[in-house]
Amino acid sequence: MTIDVQNDGNNPQDGQQIIINQIASEQQSNGIGVAGFVLSLIALFLIWVPVLGLILWGLGLVFSLIGMFKTPRGLAIAGSFISVIGFIGLMCMLVRAVRGLNAVIDFLGCLLTLNTNCNY
């Protein structure tokens, strides 16, 4: 960019030319961190699909952790946070499902054996 400055007579240099070089700053991106964030976010909405949710959360956590070593780190940190919280939630849901399945099996066992000592 070139700017011509007109002399008003007070400046001893006539027709001084000022050259301004602007260097365009490149915005850095963290593709692997963004991928981890997106996978974690998708896994958050697919919490009701246990196998798919588990796979997406695992990939989201791995990608987010890798992305935390690159700049910018914002989405990678958010993705790892969502992954850890979601993974804990998924494990709690699986534990509850197993407990419920055990209760159903116990109930069916009482029905089949005609045991009168069952608490159901």
Task: Give me some keywords for this one.
120 residues; mainly alpha; two-stranded antiparallel ribbon; 2 strands; 61% helix
Describe this structure in words.
With 120 residues, this protein is mainly alpha-helical. The chain has a domain at 31-112. The protein is 61% helix and 5% strand. The chain is built from three helices and two strands. The protein has helices spanning 31-45, 50-67, 74-113, and strands at residues 2-4, 17-19. It has a two-stranded antiparallel ribbon. Helix 1 packs antiparallel against helix 2 (50-67), helix 1 packs parallel to helix 3 and helix 2 (50-67) runs antiparallel to helix 3. It is rod-shaped, with a radius of gyration of 31 Å.
Look at the helices and sheets and give the structural class.
Answer: mainly alpha
- Rg of Cα set: 31 Å
Q: What is the helix fraction of residues, given as a range?
A: 55-70%
Oligomeric assembly: single chain
How far apart, in Å, are the first and last alpha carbons?
85 Å
Number of strands: 2
So what's the overall shape?
Answer: rod-shaped
Strand adjacency order, main sheet: 1-2
Identify low-pLDDT runs: none
Number of helices: 3
State mean pLDDT (0 to 100 scale).
83
β-sheet strand percentage: 5-15%
Largest sheet: 2 strands, antiparallel
N-to-C series of helices and strands: EEHHH
Write the layout of secondary structure elements.
Elements: E1 2-4, E2 17-19, H1 31-45, H2 50-67, H3 74-113
Helix pairs in contact: 1-2, 1-3, 2-3
